[in-house]
Amino acid sequence: MGKRNWFLCSSLITVFMLAGCNGGAQPAPTGQNAASNTQTTKKEETKTTASDKPFKGHEVSVYTSLKTRDAKTWGELEKAVEEKTGIKVKGIEAPQNYPDLVSKVTVSLSSGGSNYDIIYLDELLTTTFKSAGFLEPISDVMEPVKQNFSESVLKSISMSDGKYYTVPITTEGMYLFVNKKLFADAGLKYPTNKEEFLDAARKLTKDGVYGYGGSWSKGGQLFNDAIRWTYAFGGDYLNWDDPNTKAAFQQMHDFLYKDKVTAAAALGDTYDQMNQKMIDGKYGMVYQWAYLSGVMKDKFGKDFEVIPVPKFNTNQTLVAGWHMTLNKNSKQKDAAKEVLKFMASRDGQKIFVKFPQQTAGDQTVIKDPKVIEEVPFIKYIGQYSEAGSFKTRPMDKNINKLQDATESALQSYLSDQITLEECMARGQKAIKEILGK
Q: pLDDT digits over 302-317, tens only?
């Protein structure tokens, strides 16, 4: 392995970043033609079954947190893949804790490991590992179905130098979750703008309850919420000279010290800790990824719900996603591509919506009324999209370094170790050095 890859991956380990075509239906044949067509179809199916399963009996490993979250649905996916391709999928549970996932997958790929054929990655890791040369192109998988996926996601995340490297599996946003009972007990309406949001946060903060809950620990959680608040104020996360970016960080600081609507524990809490506090009724509002609804189980809808993004300078929030990728060092590349083809198909995508994050990369699946009926949370994707609330995270091949440097500067400010001016200067200097500007 080249020095560049060794350097990149050794940095990654210490960084701990976060976070098919469906043809038109044909008319049904009638009479003798129907019987004839039925016989022909059966013969063709027999021939197709043999030719469509050239890798029958092969085993393909998939390293994924999806199995960790929902083993039952993962088992359904494994069964469907084997029925379609004859390939046995071996799901290997990946940590749900993001820093642990980053560490383990980076060590494996940087050492040339082939124990994982397919790896489930977010767009940050995808971008980094593409640049490092760790991922195998899968254009033959995505070209036939590309029209079903978001063009912007394909261009910004899946593609590099005209080649596809990922199958988009989820379309995830950071949604505003609220505690229905806390709002009702306080006689508050859901906020629609900055003033209403701050007023609600203040009035909900009492008796050990905080109006706004956060997960601001280093390793991606702070990175996400900082970008989200930057977007809310109309700032640019990669430009810390922007006064709107500065205003966003000032607001986060105010949550802690001026308004005291966010617990100091947020500075060290992971997503798991924040989620549990929300479920326990300790927080009135949190911005979190869609999977929180699955963690809440039957409490979502009854005790908690998602509301539109209140407008500060904008009503924007993060949209992101996770992808299935092919390990460059896989010994089962052709068989793995057959598995990825199923994952990219409508049948495969319809299984993915059953997992806790309850989304899919295939836009036709997300808009399918039957799917929305079966998985109600998907409706929020449409609502947020129609409101113009979704905005992707800034992507760069050095995104891991940007995350580490900016989180360090912002964490110091939010911990009251440095001033806001020092924070902005330190962050902007690091950004310029990393981007080479």
A: 999 999 999 999 999 9
**Is there a contact between 65 and 96 (Cβ–Cβ < 8 Å)?**
yes
Work out the angle at residue 237's Cα, subtended by the Cα atoms of residues 232 and 238, and round it to the nearest 5 degrees: 155
Lowest mean pLDDT across 26-35, 49-58, 350-359, 367-376: 26-35
Provide the residue type at 156 as one letter. S
Tokens of 175: 């949604």
Is the residue at 79 inside a domain? yes
Beta bridge partner(s), residue 289: 174
As a dihedral over the C-alpha atoms of residue 297, residue 302, residue 306, residue 308, rounded to 10 degrees, the angle is: 170
Question: Considering its fold, how many domains does the chain have in total?
Answer: 2
| pLDDT at res. 357 | 64
Say if residues 221 and 271 touch (Cβ distance below 8 Å).
yes
Residue 414 maps to a domain: yes
Reduced to 3 states (helix: H, G, I; strand: E, B; else coil), residue 350 is: helix
Q: Decide if pLDDT at 30 tops 60.
A: no
Q: Please tell me whether residues 179 and 327 are part of one structural domain.
A: no
Distances (CA, A) of 360 to 346, 347, 368, 381: 10, 11, 11, 10
Q: Which of 157-166, 210-219, 345-354, 388-397 has the lowest mean pLDDT?
A: 388-397
- Judge contact between 131 and 121, C-beta under 8 A: no
- Residue-range definition of the domain harbouring residue 96: 3-19+51-171+321-392
Cα 370 from Cα 351, distance rounded (Å):
13
> 110 and 221 in one domain?
no
> Does 2 have pLDDT greater than 80?
no
Cα dihedral 280, 282, 285, 287 in deg (nearest 10): -70
- State the Cα–Cα distance between residues 291 and 148, nearest whole angstrom: 23
Q: What size, in residues, is the chain? A: 437
| Structure token pair of residue 235 | 């700032």
